[in-house]
Design goal:
The chain is built from 15 helices and three strands. The protein has 435 residues and is mostly helical.
Length: 435
C-alpha cells in the first residue's frame, strides 16, 4: 500500500491531505466542545444544526465549483481554497454567539466543498493504474482514520495546557501546510472538456450517478454510513460529558477509538478488495454498522461506548473505502470530476438528513433512544442497496446502438465477433444502463 508514495506527486498530495485532515480533526473536536460550552443542554441540537449547515454548503457548492474548477489551474484553485479555509478557521476562537458559528462554518465548508472533489478527481490522473489507485484509496482512508486518532490524542495533550479555543489555531496551521505541499507538487494536466455551462455539468454528473445501478446502491449505502457517523460525531460529547459525567479528555478518547477501528480496517482492506468484489465488502461494512447501531441502545457505561465506537469505526471504513473505485469505473476522465462532485453532493445530502435528525432526537428523546431510529434507517438502506446492486456487476457489457449508423466510429472501434461490447459507463453515447 505504501509503494504508491514513491510517486513524488502523489506523495506531496498525500502529505497535504494528512496535514489538512489533522487540522480538520482539531476543529471538529473544538467545535463540539465550543457548542457544549455555549449551549449546554442544547449542545447536540446546536452541533447537529452546525453540521447540517456544513452539508448544505457541500451540496450547494460542490457541483458548481467542480464545473469551474476543471477549467482552471488545479494548483491555484487548491491553494486559494486552503487559504480561505485557514482565514475562516482563524476567526472561530473569537465566537461568542451560536449564529456566528453557523456563519463561519458555512464559509469554511463552502471552501472545502470546492476543494475535495477537485482533489479526488485528480488522483486517478496521477495514478492511472488500477492497483496503484486502489492502494491510494486505502491510504487516503487511512489518512482520514489517522485524523480520527491523532487529532483526539493531540487535542487531549493540548487541552492539558491550553483552552479548546486555541485548538482552532491547529486547523489554521494544517490548511497552510496543505497549501505549501500542493504548491510543491507537479500536478498533471487534465483533459479540459468543452465548457457547456454549470447546469450541464451538474446534470451530467447526476445523470451518470442515477443511471448506474452500482451508484444508485452507493447512494443507499451513503445513507447508512451517514446514520452511524452522524450519531458518533453529534452524540459523543453528550454521551461522555452529560450521560457518563466524564471530562473533555474522555471525549477525545472516544473519538480516538472510532478512528482506531477505522484505521485498522484500512490497513487490511487492499488485501480484502483483491479477493472479494466491492459489493460484498461494502455490504459487509454496512452490516457491521447496522449491528453496532442496534447494540448502542444497550450501552451502560463508558467502556462499552469505547468498544462500540471501535466496532462502528471498522464498519465505517469497510463500507466507505471502496467508493472511489466505484466512481472511477463508472466514468471516463472527462466526466470524472462531475461524477465525484455528484457523489460528494449526494453523500453529504445524506448527512444533511442525519446530522439534524440525531441532534433533534437526542435533545427530545434521549441519546440512547437515538440509536434505534438510526439503526432502522441503516437497515432500510442496506436492503435497498442489496436490491439495486446486482451480484453480477460486469464492467464489460454487450449492448446495441439503434441511434448510430453502422459506419459510426464508435461501432467500428468496439464491434468484435459480431458483438458490440466494451467497458460500459453512462456517457454521450450511452444514455441508459443496458437491461
Amino acid at each position: 500500500m505504501l509503494e504508491v508514495l514513491k510517486n513524488t506527486t502523489y506523495r506531496h498530495l498525500f502529505l497535504a491531505q494528512v496535514i489538512a485532515l489533522v487540522g480538520t480533526g482539531l476543529i471538529t473536536i473544538a467545535l463540539a466542545l465550543q457548542a457544549y460550552d455555549i449551549a449546554k443542554g442544547q449542545a447536540a441540537e446546536v452541533l447537529g444544526i452546525a453540521l447540517a449547515i456544513k452539508m448544505i454548503a457541500y451540496i450547494g457548492v460542490a457541483p458548481i465549483a467542480s464545473a469551474f474548477a476543471e477549467r482552471l489551474p488545479r494548483k491555484k484553485v487548491l491553494v486559494t481554497l486552503d487559504i480561505i479555509r485557514a482565514c475562516t478557521a482563524l476567526c472561530l476562537p473569537f465566537v461568542t454567539q451560536i449564529w456566528q458559528i453557523y456563519v463561519l462554518i458555512f464559509i469554511l465548508q463552502s471552501a472545502s466543498a470546492a476543494f475535495t472533489p477537485t482533489f479526488q478527481a485528480m488522483i486517478p490522473d496521477v495514478l492511472p493504474e488500477e492497483k496503484e489507485y486502489t492502494n491510494a484509496l486505502s491510504l487516503s482512508r487511512l489518512a482520514y482514520d489517522l485524523e480520527n486518532i491523532i487529532s483526539p490524542m493531540l487535542a487531549a495533550f493540548l487541552l492539558t495546557y491550553i483552552s479548546y479555543h486555541n485548538l482552532f489555531l491547529g486547523t489554521v496551521i494544517g490548511f497552510i501546510g496543505s497549501a505549501l505541499f500542493v504548491v510543491s507538487a507537479k500536478l498533471p494536466r487534465a483533459k479540459v472538456p468543452e465548457f457547456k455551462g454549470v447546469y450541464y455539468r451538474i446534470k451530467q454528473g447526476s445523470k451518470i450517478y442515477l443511471n448506474t445501478p452500482r451508484l444508485k446502491a452507493l447512494l443507499a449505502l451513503n445513507l447508512a454510513i451517514a446514520s452511524a457517523s452522524a450519531l458518533v460525531i453529534v452524540n459523543t460529547v453528550v454521551l461522555v460529558q452529560s450521560t457518563f459525567k466524564l471530562t473533555e479528555h474522555a471525549t477525545t478518547l472516544a473519538f480516538g477509538l472510532f478512528g482506531l477501528g477505522s484505521m485498522l480496517s484500512a490497513f487490511i482492506l487492499p488485501q480484502i478488495i483483491d479477493k472479494f468484489a466491492d459489493r460484498k465488502v461494502m455490504l459487509a461494512g454496512t452490516a457491521i454498522l447496522v449491528i453496532g447501531l442496534f447494540m448502542g441502545y444497550f450501552i451502560g457505561n463508558f467502556n462499552n461506548l469505547l468498544v462500540l465506537w471501535f466496532i462502528l469505526g471498522i464498519g465505517y471504513s469497510v463500507a466507505q473505502t471502496p467508493t472511489g473505485r466505484l466512481i472511477r469505473k463508472s466514468a471516463d476522465s472527462e466526466n470524472r470530476t462531475a461524477l465525484f462532485a455528484a457523489q460528494f453532493a449526494f453523500s453529504h445530502a445524506c448527512w444533511l438528513i442525519t446530522y439534524p435528525l440525531v441532534g433533534w432526537l437526542s435533545t427530545n428523546f434521549g441519546t440512547l433512544f437515538t440509536f434505534i431510529p438510526m439503526a432502522i434507517i441503516a437497515v432500510l438502506a442496506f436492503i435497498a442497496a442489496s436490491l439495486l446492486w446486482s451480484a453480477r456487476d460486469d464492467e464489460v457489457k454487450e449492448h446495441h446502438h439503434a441511434d448510430l449508423p453502422p459506419d459510426h466510429a464508435h461501432l467500428l472501434e468496439h464491434n468484435k465477433d459480431g458483438k458490440h461490447e466494451h467497458e460500459f459507463m453512462v456517457d454521450h453515447y450511452h444514455q441508459h444502463w443496458p437491461k
